[in-house]
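Notebook entry, structure prediction.
Reason for the run: the old model in the group folder had no record of what sequence produced it. Starting over properly, with the input documented here first.
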Amino acid sequence: MIDPTPNEKVAMEHGGQMGGEYLESIGKTDMLSLTPQEWNTFIECVVTGYCDCLRELASTDRNRLDAMREGVPF
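New structure, fully documented this time:
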């Protein structure tokens, strides 16, 4: 990703944390020791965490923008 936005940076951090939580839950830190299924689950955790966080941030941004617009007389 080239020049990630602030929201994308936050979402990447969140996705990474979700992946880390999964690895912690299965007691593995050596990624070479992951089975194909564990690897797929790890990737799913990272991607889902990233996307969910990005959607949440976008929703917050949209709500903030909509609230600002209510005060504009035109």
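Summary: The chain has a mean pLDDT of 90.
The old model has been moved to the deprecated folder.
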